[in-house]
Amino acid sequence: MKTIGIIAEYNPFHNGHAYQIAELKRKTNADFVVIAMSGDFVQRGAPAIIDKYCRAEMALLCGADLVIELPAVWAVSSAEDFAMAGVTLFDKMGCIDGICFGAESDQLPLLKSIAGVLAEEPDIYRSALSSYLKKGLAFPAARAAALSDYFKSTGMNFLISILDTPNNILAVEYLKALKRRNSAMTPILIPRAGSGYHDTTINTPTASASAIRAAVSNVTPSDNHTFHFSSADYGSQSIHSSRPHLSEIASSMPEPAFALFQKEITSGRLMDADDFSSILGYRILSCIKKELENIYDMTPEIANRIIKNRYHFSSFTQFCAQNKSRDITYTRMNRILLHLILQMTQTDVKQYKETDYIPYLRILGFRKDASALLSALKKSAKVPVISKLSSALRTLDGTANQMLKQDIFSSELYEQQKTGKTKNRFSCPECSKEIIRV
């Protein structure tokens, strides 16, 4: 039985994701594809546009066999910690043969070489990185420049542009994590098809998630149209609508995924960072400097800046833009502010890393015909597999219990803010949510 893992956010699930799963199965003859998926908050430091259960169902309807939640603290971490946690999750499943990832580059050997340098940190690289950081470069730019210096010293050609794209960066981090863990899992690269990660316009059937989220901003809950798909081929759907932007969104997503997404659009349940503005404003006013400095990824300089600017706060996105700087990127500031909202501390993260990142495997959903995979997982898993949350809270202790409670808090806060936005009742506590079965 061959089983391959994909680390993903699916924010939301689109044709490019469906292509990756289909191409992976075609290339490897995999029997099962497992997704390690971010929960209700994502790596760029924002709430997911739709909740994790809806996104898990999208994935399962479009080719995935099992979805396991990446704990919240790692879902909103740096690329390095996000990747290490995802790789560790698959390692601890004990039944994953390989990890598949997309990238703008199709040069796996080169990406492996870069990952090797980052994993081993030779003196030439480390010295150059320190020098560039002292010059005030943000970490991603300093790292790319240091890698360029290192490869020049070895006579190899290295283009800094390779690390200019998010998927290439994550690909390198996955490879670095595999090397550091001495993992036997095989890396499988599927070159990204269609639009780039940051493209914000829908001009191909494989538009990016960023483009879909941008298009959604033009849609109102009253845009309640029915879409008719004439083909099962995800790339050639026929859609009838009087609203072009909704048609474009539909053409960029597999039919089952769009059907779920349209329900979320018409019900007004889409979320963004500014839906958490009031909570962030409260946290900024209520925290003293010592508390701020213990927030995950915070520095004394950033804490001072937040305190200095706290009376100029108006929204999450405004405050993030106001406090980013030459050496602190907008995305990193987003994550820091989200850590503040979710009460994730330096102390927590240090403890989680010391206990090897992943103390449990929480199932979000599975296909009913994947029973062989579930049976194998129960036998091979190196940590507890959670199918019933309330039972896990009673049996897990220490760090695992603490991390699980943080996951529950993050999801219930997301649900609470969504409820406030739609004026509906709180659906149900996280412990009462059912696993998705398709």
UniProtKB/TrEMBL annotation:
Keyword check for tRNA-binding: yes
Single annotated GO MF: ligase activity, forming carbon-nitrogen bonds
Residues spanning the signal sequence: none
Segments traversing the membrane: none
Binding locations of ATP: 7-20, 102, 167, 192
Primary residence: cytoplasm
Alphabetized SUPFAM superfamilies for the sequence: Nucleotidylyl transferase
Protein name: tRNA(Met) cytidine acetate ligase
Native source organism of the sequence: Roseburia intestinalis L1-82
Recorded name of the encoding gene: tmcAL
